[in-house]
Structures are given as C-alpha cells and as structure tokens.
Amino acid sequence: MGKSSYVFLISLIAAFGGLLFGFDIAIFSGTIPFLQPYYQLTDAQLGWTGSSLYVGCIVGTLVTGYLTDRYGRKLPLTFAAGIFMVSSLLMGWSSSYTWLVVWRIMAGIGVGAASMLSPLYIAEVSPAAIRGRMVSINQLTVVIGILLAYLSNYLLADQENNWRWMFASGAIPAVLFFVCVFLVPESPRWLLSKGRADEARRVLLRLAGSATVVENELQTIRAGMGREVKGKLRDLVQPGIAFIVMLGITMAIFQQISGANAIFFYAPIIFEKAGMNVKDQLFQQIMIGAINLLFTLLAMQLVDKLGRKKLMLAGASLMALWLFLVGLCYALGLFQGYWLTIFVLAFIATYATTLAPVTWVLISEIFPTKVRGIAVSVATCALWTACFALAYGFPVMIASLDAPQTFFIFSGVCLLYFFILLKYIPETKGKTLEQFETEIIRH
C-alpha cells in the first residue's frame, strides 16, 4: 500500500466518529413525526429530546480533552465507539421517555469525544500538502452518516415500532468503527511529546516513507514542541494563544447557529409548515442528504486549492442570501412549484462546500501542539453548546415567532459572520502546523 493510500485509510477510519455524529442528527429528525405523538411531547419537550444528545457531547469533549493529552488519540476513540454502540441499542428499546433521554445523553458523550478526536488525529498524521483534504474526510463521513440515516428513516417509516428501529440502527456503524479503530496507529506527534521517539519514528516511516523525510519531520515537530507551553486550561489565556483560542470558539459557534443544523435536525417541521405529508418530508430529507454529500466531495477538492478564507467568506455570504429567500417563501406563501426546495438545497450545498468542512479543518490546524488537545476540546465544547441551544430552541422559536422571522434571523447571523471572517480569519493553506504556529505566536 502506498504512503498516501495508508494516510487516507487511517484518516477514513478515524473519521467514522463524524459518521456517528451525522447518523444521529439525521436519525432523530426522522423519528419526530412518530416520537412526538407517541410521548405527546410539547414543543419544549421535543427540543429537549433533540438537544439532550448535545449535553452528552459537551461532557464528552471536556473529558476527552484531558484524556487525549494523557492517553493519546487512539484509546479514547475506541471508548467513544463502544459508548455509541451500546447507547444506540438502548435508545431504541428504552422503556420510558426518561430513559430515552438518559441514553441520548450517553450517546452524546461518545459522539462528542469522537467529534473532537477525529479531526485532531487526522491533522496530526497528514502531510501539510494534503492535510485540508484529509481533515475534510471527517466532514465527508458526517454527511454520509446523514444520508444513510435519512435512507434508513425512509425505509423504516412503515414498520411497527419504527422510531425504535431508527434509533437502534445507529449500532451498525458504531460496531464497524469499534472494530476498525484497532487498526490505526497512535499519533506520532503525541508519541514524541511523551518521549516515545522510537515509536513515533516507526509510525512516521509508515506515513512518510523515507528515513530522511522522517528525520526532518521529527526535527520540525521537536522544534515546534520546544516553543510551546504545557497543555493546561490556564495556558489558553496566555499572550499569543488567547486570541487564537477565541477565534476557534467563534468559528465553532457560528458554524452551528448559521441555520444549517436547524434544517438537518428539524426538516420534518420545516416541510410540514409548507403542507407536505410525512412520507414527502422524509423523501425531501433524502434529497438534502444527497446534495450534502455531493457538495462535500466538491469541498474536498477545493479546500487545499482555494484556501480556507475564500471558502469561508463565500459560504457565509451565500448562506445569508439563501436563508433570506427561504424566509421570503414562507412570508409570501410560495409553496407552489419547487422554490422552497430549491432554496433549501442551495443553502445546504453552500454549507456543505464551505462552513461545514472548513471549520473543522481550521479548528484542527490553528492551535499549538502542546495545547492542541485541550484547545480543540474547548472549541468543540463551544460548538456543542451552540448546537444544544439551537436544537433546544428551534421548535420553540419557529412556533413562538413564525417561519419567515426565524429564517430572516438566521440570514442576519450569517451576514454578521461574514464580516467577522473578513477581518479575523487566518489562512493556513499549504503551511505545516509548526509554520502556522510560529506565525501566530509572532503576531
């Protein structure tokens, strides 16, 4: 197997953490038409049921930040897969609404851990020239998970106990992830940070090939480590680091409150307000999943060619436009024909090409190595906190306001983000993690 093929293979395995995240988002949205009447949930209770997963995600990211710096990247990935595997089955066959929420929180711990570990691991094993493309694999598996879950929801909709089978089906990708993660090596950067140079050298030989390249890479990593502070929480507010941490948190939050996940989480509610029946709602979700996958593949080709900043700016501005047009559809009652579907799919296509993958790429790249684990943990925790707020608040928001106002607000959020990106976003295209770190500290 060639070196680049090996890097791709282990990156793909690590990125199964993203698939679990995408699968659960989409699975929940498909259960809404059946779960809400089964337990007679109010809008607030539906929001809590959907968002409870992200309580677990917050816990998972906070705990994993410590574990990954102490025990490496591989062991926590294994535990994350195991947790999600068991909790998926228990969600499906929960004996009460309370236990359903409990197991969703447990599933969130596994999803949260994997969501921060997958891009972190991939960034640390990938050469600079293809790092953006490799980290984008994580977002690719997220959207594959979404599409697979939408297909599963559509196929299971007519079955008895349909929502139970929908939740339980998440155990299938979790088992595959759990088995395959044993095949990946430990991160060479983490091994070197623990003084295990011989093991790091062996891993790098498999990743890079020639001994000369490996020794140069070892020297580069050591030089970068020599400039770093230890990875403690208080170090994140030190000069030269605090700004980049705040930038990472800002990108994480805006990725979630841009409106995309409102569509992924609650597409049935959105299309129900346009007069569609349940089967049509679930079919619309399959279209969303397919467009999401297609344009994520496009993003993987663009992220290392066009650069991170151009894609983020284009994404924020176009998403603001599409959301405004979606709001107009509801305001003017433009439900005849395909205008609403076209604008929703254009929005998802833009998100899939820009904010969705590039945010994860930047979060995995911008932090110094010794604090990278804890910094990625904090940024990802902020992401899940925003995700929780969105998942909990959207059903209440769209019921309390109305659909036009809701989408106009999301449009304004994307426009604000455009100006933040314009002023503050860095460009990391083609730079090693150590080169970018030197530039940040210098500034």
TrEMBL record:
Protein name: Sugar porter family MFS transporter
Chief localization: membrane
GO cellular component, one term: plasma membrane
Species classification: Bacteria, Pseudomonadati, Bacteroidota, Cytophagia, Cytophagales
Subcellular location: Cell membrane
NCBIfam families per the UniProt record, alphabetical: SP
InterPro entries: MFS_dom, MFS_sugar_transport-like, MFS_Sugar_Transporter, MFS_trans_sf, Sugar/inositol_transpt, Sugar_transporter_CS
Keywords: Cell membrane, Membrane, Sugar transport, Transmembrane, Transmembrane helix, Transport
Segments crossing the lipid bilayer: 7-28, 48-68, 75-95, 101-123, 135-157, 163-184, 240-270, 282-299, 311-333, 339-362, 374-394, 406-425
UniProt-recorded Gene Ontology molecular function terms: transmembrane transporter activity
Pfam families: Sugar_tr
Span of domain Major facilitator superfamily (MFS) profile: 10-429
Family as reported in the entry's similarity comment: Belongs to the major facilitator superfamily. Sugar transporter (TC 2.A.1.1) family.
Membrane topology (UniProt): Multi-pass membrane protein
